[in-house]
Amino acid sequence: MNGLVLLIIAVACLALGYIFYGGWLCKQWGVGESKEETPAHTMEDGVDYVPAKAPVLMGHHFSSIAGAGPITGPISAAGLGFGWLACTLWIVLGGIFFGGVHDMGALIASVRHGGKSIGEIISANMSRRAKRLFIIFAYLTLILVVAAFASIVATTFQATVGENGAIDKAASTANAQVAMVSLLFIVIAIVFGFLVYRKNTPMGISTLVGVVAIVAIIAIGINFHPIYLTYKVWMIVVAIYITVASVTPVWILLQPRDYLSSFLLYAMLFLALVAVIISHPSMSSLPVIQSPEATSPVFPVLFTTIA
Description:
- This protein is mostly helical.
- The chain has helices at 3-29, 39-42, 54-65, 68-79, 84-111, 118-125, 128-157, 173-197, 203-223, 231-247, 254-279, 298-306, and strands spanning 160-161, 167-168.
- The chain has a two-stranded antiparallel sheet with strand order 1-2.
């Protein structure tokens, strides 16, 4: 099949799912029927409950969902030989009927329960035993997810160690550049959050400065990258960052970081779209369904790999 045709079909399905299935869910859950303020307004404390700017909130959720996972997962699944049809069906149908409804339902439930986490919502609506069981499941799952993403980041940043045990800087240049840009990105995210939520700088000006800063740090990282660390050291650094980020108010780090990084994702999606339109790639080089060489079963490996 032609890649452009497949892209058009997928985009059409996602749009129809958003309009019809998303609209039906809104009616079932009564979204928009009341004008009650969210917990960010009714319980505002400047730390955990802070009203977010709509564009920042959009970028925060988009970047959180459309980050490294949805890029790495489908490529890995295709590489395992599951076939482009199975991968495409799971991305489109799974995104509409599983991923989308799950995230939307979780957000609505949290807003209607004072911004509480899913564990507290389960305790209020089911039982404390159900809450404990879910927290155990969530804890074990998060260990797996955090380990996987930490490993991806550490592998991306790691310096190559030569046969003599010394770091080969020439072979590690690209990784060091990416690491430097990522570290600088955290800095400008914190500055952006401080300007928007503490200095009330207009969103347009803050966004423009943030995007220009992204371009600047990319240029800096390419030309100045003195940090060369091994995989193990980066795993420790990432673990410390995850710990700090998990307890830091979302408005000062995670939200502005995701908002600014969403512009990179928008640009990547646009360039990918242009590339598909121009090149019209053929799917003939990939198996339509699971290839005979594939050793992993479609269920459940396909779904967990993509997710």
